[in-house]
Design goal:
- The protein is an alpha+beta fold.
- The chain has three domains: 230 residues, 4-Layer Sandwich (Glutamine Phosphoribosylpyrophosphate, subunit 1, domain 1), CATH 3.60.20; 201 residues, HUPs (Rossmann fold, 3-Layer(aba) Sandwich), CATH 3.40.50; 68 residues, no CATH class.
- The protein is built from 28 helices and 17 strands.
- A hairpin with a 3-residue loop joins strand 4 and strand 5.
- Helix 13 packs across helix 14, helix 18 runs parallel beside helix 19 and helix 25 crosses helix 28.
Length: 623
């Protein structure tokens, strides 16, 4: 697990100097405190036949701690920088030896990728099991090859010259901001997408000239044209006639956990006491032996504290458990998060993720997590809402009309929720699910920035994936390629790598993902959420794990915005030189703040989104 950055140029106009490369290296240094290295080839004139390659690398030593495993790594013809872990690298090493004898210089996974590319070229990604982002400069072929893992666990950003004669790439956006030539003007479509979803979805970024390499995507650039991109995996491809039983689920999860324990340093496990993390901890205990380290985090507010549940699960499993009770200092920590995300990101659960990673890193370098369990096995309440809507539509229309007209003065009251649900029944499934997932409603975005064409990401993806699937199945499939990589995994990577902690997610091994793609609604929700996981691990965990209500990983952001963060919010958002002042209509912004402060309407997540826009803007606004 590391960070990297680089530039390859076939044109002297895009030459990179050592000082710029060092600045790029410093921008990703937090991802790898165990060593930094740069390489920069010739200072002669750059030509299409003689490109310049500059690479920077920051190492977090997990596998093969020998200094010879340092990157950039070369075999003489090709040079690689790599972030992630390949869990089957030992099996691949043997397979490669069987195909072509090779004199190995290291014992880790980086050299295996490099040699796999020399044998299979772009097809090498089909052989890799793990989470990864890497770049390979092939001096013989005069090409750059970029690849990102199937589920989007590891990030990779890139910027290409307009004619394709240079390409820059990095693990985080801040490194690309060190360059003078990418177009870093504001992308208004991306701003609209951010307001709609709370994140800027791949392949876009908030900047016009910088892109994300999408999950399961590879890119080839040869300096003669814009990069060619290709997808190599779809997490929603249904295997014909495939079934998945509870016993098979248990076996697959345990096998994934066992593979992901590979490490030359201690490995721990996040444990909240919920289904997903408890399942991973139970599987880890079954495969790792006696010593299992588990970690949980809590707050003074009992509404957001799961440590008692985590402690009960840890006692049941017999793990060595540590709970951390933290007193958040959001005013100090939010600017740090804004910097590491590099573009606006509106999920406030990034804060507790940051705290958990910070405290866990004091004890281990690697932690397993339960990320992906909700999207694979049906854990979100919104899936149940989609299922209930199917049944509610069968009610006589006059009954639905009565419910839709219920008086409800307070937006959080039960009557208000019933009224909103009844009114949503008139919407198509795709629109209704998009409404569940939206941060700002279309009319609120219109009030802020006027009539702008919204991306309608969730609605369009849901509509495409609903063919052959019922609404619950379509919702889970939509989340697997939108919310999971763009929100959840982005949050986990940046929040953990800010503290140089590697987080691994066994549920996201692509073999398990492929088996879950075809799960039908009864396997997801019958008798409650995550039916297969409940049945698969019923004997391993206390009953309360499967019965208690889902809490989620949240903080009382609405309360903080009325209290400790109120000054920061109003000072930043309402300043005359703020991003909001330049791009939004002031009455709409002021109205939301006033409604929230008066406790009339809960705008907590929307105001948090505006606050993160301002903090990002202060870190480095578009030029």
């Amino acid at each position: 697990m590391c960070g990297f950055a680089g530039v390859v140029s076939w044109d002297d106009r895009y030459r990179i100097d050592r000082d710029t490369l060092l600045r790029m290296s410093r921008a990703i240094a937090h991802r790898g405190p165990d060593g930094q290295e740069i390489s920069l080839n010739h200072e002669n004139q750059i030509t299409p036949e003689n490109p310049q390659c500059g690479l920077a690398f920051a190492r977090l030593a997990i596998l093969d701690l020998d200094p010879r495993a340092m990157q950039p790594m070369t075999d003489g013809h090709r040079t690689i920088v790599f972030n992630g872990e390949i869990y089957n690298f030992r099996e691949l090493r043997k397979e490669l030896d069987d195909e072509r004898r090779y004199q190995w210089k290291t014992t880790g996974d980086t050299e295996v990728i490099l040699h796999a590319y020399s044998v299979w070229r772009e097809k090498c990604v089909d052989h890799l099991e793990g989470m990864f982002a890497f770049a390979i400069f092939d001096k013989q072929e005069n090409t750059v090859f970029l690849a990102r893992d199937r589920m989007g666990q590891k990030p990779l950003y890139f910027a290409a010259a307009p004619d394709g004669s240079a390409i820059a790439f990095a693990s985080e956006l801040a490194a690309l901001r060190c360059l003078s030539w990418p177009d870093t003007s504001l992308d208004l479509d991306s701003l609209a997408g951010y307001l709609e979803n709370g994140y800027v979805a791949s392949p876009a970024t908030i900047y016009r000239g910088i892109r994300k390499l999408a999950p399961a995507c590879i890119l080839v650039c040869d300096g003669t044209d814009l990069p060619a991109l290709k997808f190599y995996f779809d997490p929603n491809t249904i295997v014909p006639d495939a079934t998945l039983t509870a016993a098979e689920t248990a076996s697959l999860v345990r096998a994934a956990v066992s593979r992901q324990l590979i490490s030359d340093v201690p490995v721990g496990c996040f444990l909240s006491g919920g289904i997903d993390s408890s399942v991973i901890a139970a599987a880890m205990k079954a495969t790792a032996g006696q010593r299992v380290l588990t970690f949980s985090i809590g707050f003074d507010d009992p509404r957001y504290d799961e440590t008692r549940f985590a402690a009960a699960v840890a006692k049941h499993l017999g793990t060595e458990h540590q709970s951390f009770i933290v007193k958040p200092d959001a005013a100090e920590d939010l600017p740090k998060l804004a910097a590491v995300f590099g573009e606006p990101f509106a999920d406030s659960s990034a804060l507790p993720t940051h705290y958990l990673a910070r405290e866990t890193r004091k004890h281990v370098k690697v932690a397993l997590s339960g990320d992906g369990g909700d999207e694979l096995f049906g854990g979100y309440e919104r899936y149940r809402a989609m299922q209930l809507a199917q049944a509610a539509r069968k009610m006589p229309r006059f009954v639905r009309n009565i419910l839709a007209g219920l008086p409800a003065k307070h937006p959080k009251s039960h009557l208000s929720k019933i009224r909103r649900f009844a009114r949503s029944l008139e919407l198509p499934d795709a629109r209704r699910y998009a409404q569940y997932m939206s941060l700002f409603e279309p009319e609120q975005i219109d009030a802020l920035i006027g009539n702008i064409a919204l991306p309608r990401l969730v609605e369009s993806v849901f509509g495409r994936l609903s063919v052959g699937r019922d609404p619950v199945e379509a919702a889970a499939a939509t989340d697997r390629i939108t919310y999971l990589p763009e929100d959840v995994l982005t949050k986990v990577d940046r929040g953990s790598m800010l503290h140089a902690l590697e987080v691994r997610s066994p549920f996201l091994e692509h073999g398990l993902v492929a088996r879950c793609a075809g799960l039908r609604s009864p396997q997801l929700l019958q008798g409650g959420p995550k039916r297969l996981l409940r049945e698969a691990f019923a004997r391993d965990l206390p009953e309360f794990v499967f019965r208690r209500a889902k809490m989620g990983f949240a903080v009382p952001i609405g309360q903080w915005l009325r209290g400790d963060l109120r000054g920061m919010l109003t000072d930043l958002v309402l300043a005359t030189d703020s991003f909001a002042s330049a791009h939004f209509r002031k009455p709409a912004v002021v109205g939301m703040i006033e409604e929230h402060m008066a406790n009339r309407i809960d705008h907590s997540q929307r105001l948090y989104a505006l606050l993160m826009l301002e903090l990002w803007n202060k870190q480095g606004a578009p030029t």
